[in-house]
Design a protein that fits this description.
The chain is of the alpha+beta class. Helix content is about 45%, strand content about 20%. It is globular and about 50 Å long.
Length: about 250
């Protein structure tokens, strides 16, 4: 996910969401930090983005949210502060100590991965006035110890994020690996294969263009869909609703 400065959005009447740049030292792993305060206006549809998040919820502790293959509905409680770190596609395993495929479409307590370190972090987060800073401080030594994300996967992700990326076979050829090796390394780093990530990123680009005011037929063509019906069908498959319903 491309993050430019801090982005703030309001959903309904009482929900506010904002994203913030990570410090430069963590940018190879972290896409952004984010926070949300909820007014209890109803469920929020969370779309797949190829990322893994660490999410702390006030009074409930921290979880790891794995890479989603389809959308799901979050049901935030009124007045609750939620803070998260969103890791770049393919960049989470060195920080978490687990392959991404094990977390696909899963939510599990951070304590299951970090043990007492997670318990102590949760205690600090409950007391802290800078919860995003606490999360980043917990990740910094793990980034230093765990090493950089898989460079081949990161290059593949960057190419898939471009408009009209190459098919998987062509992408593997450009990177001088077999399709099988590319898929295997993607599963370990991202959580699913390059073909699905390409679909997820294409939908993300199309929806961003539609929110900017482009007509849906043009959006579909520019994003690389065969036609508007193809765009609508893929949106239903990944997001659970049509583009029109989602944008509304």
């Amino acid at each position: 996910m491309a993050v430019v400065g801090a982005r703030a959005r309001r959903y309904g009447v009482g929900m506010r969401y904002a994203e913030h740049r990570p410090p430069a030292v963590l940018t190879p792993w972290v896409a952004c930090t984010w926070e949300r305060r909820d007014g209890g206006d109803g469920p929020v549809r969370v779309l797949p983005d190829g990322c893994i998040d660490i999410v702390w919820t006030e009074g409930r502790g921290a979880i790891v949210a794995g890479p989603d293959t389809t959308a799901w509905l979050a049901r935030p409680a009124p007045g609750v502060h939620v803070v998260g770190v969103r890791m770049r596609p393919g960049a989470a395993p060195p920080l978490l100590g687990i392959e991404a495929a094990a977390l696909r479409d899963d939510r599990r307590p951070l304590r299951a991965l970090w043990g007492d370190d997670a318990r102590l972090l949760e205690e600090r987060l409950e007391r802290s006035d800078d919860r995003r800073g606490e999360l980043l401080a917990a990740l910094a030594p793990r980034a230093a110890a765990g090493g950089s994300p898989d460079a081949l996967v990161q290059e593949a992700v960057a190419r898939l994020a471009r408009p009209r990326p190459r098919p998987v076979a062509g992408l593997a050829g450009e990177l001088c690996v077999s399709e099988r090796q590319l898929r295997r390394r993607f599963a370990a780093a991202v959580g699913y294969g390059p073909k699905r990530l390409a679909r997820v990123l294409r939908l993300e680009r199309a929806l961003a263009a539609a929110r900017a005011g482009e007509e849906l037929g043009r959006v579909a063509a520019d994003a690389g869909y065969a036609d508007q019906a193809h765009f609508a069908g893929d949106c239903r498959a990944l997001a659970g609703v049509s583009p029109t319903a989602l944008l509304a």
